[in-house]
Amino acid sequence: MKQEFKKKTITQLKRAQGMLKKVISMTEEDKYCIDLLQQSLAVVGLMKGANKMILENHLNACFKTGMKSANSKRQQELIKELLHVIGKA
Predict the structure, then answer these.
(1) Counting Cβ atoms within 10 Å, is residue 46 exposed (0-12), middle (13-18) or buried (19+)?
(2) CATH assignment of 3-88, given 3.30.300.30, 3.40.50.300, 1.20.58.1000, 1.10.510.10?
(3) 3-state class of 46 per DSSP?
(4) For residue 30, what is the DSSP state?
(5) CA 66, chain centre distance (Å)
(6) Residues in Cβ contact with 42 at an 8 Å cutoff, skipping those fewer than 6 apart
(7) Which tens digits make up the pLDDT trace of 11-61?
């Protein structure tokens, strides 16, 4: 992973981690459900952002390199792998 993407991704993931800890704490303290939900949705948003960065890096590095150097069978496997992961999102 390129250093630029790595740094941004780690920052995003750590922010999500911190917010998730806060959601857990708020849940343990029986805080208002809407406040919990808003914080939880913020965590989801941060994770979506991190996933987007990871995917972008993969496409620009691993996938691009694999498509250039692989035979057509391996290229199809790479495409299938990518579609499988995107399907989970």
Answers:
(1) buried
(2) 1.20.58.1000
(3) helix
(4) T
(5) 21
(6) 19
(7) 999 999 999 999 999 999 999 999 999 999 999 999 999 999 999 999 999
**Distance (Å, rounded) from C-alpha 35 to C-alpha 26?**
9
Vertex 87 angle, CA 81 and 88, to 5°: 100
Q: How far is CA 67 from CA 17, 47, 73, 80, in A?
A: 34, 27, 10, 12
Q: From 19, 86, 6, select the one nearest 46 (Cα to Cα).
A: 19
H or E segment to which residue 25 belongs: helix 3-28
Q: Would you say the pTM of this structure is higher than 0.85?
A: no
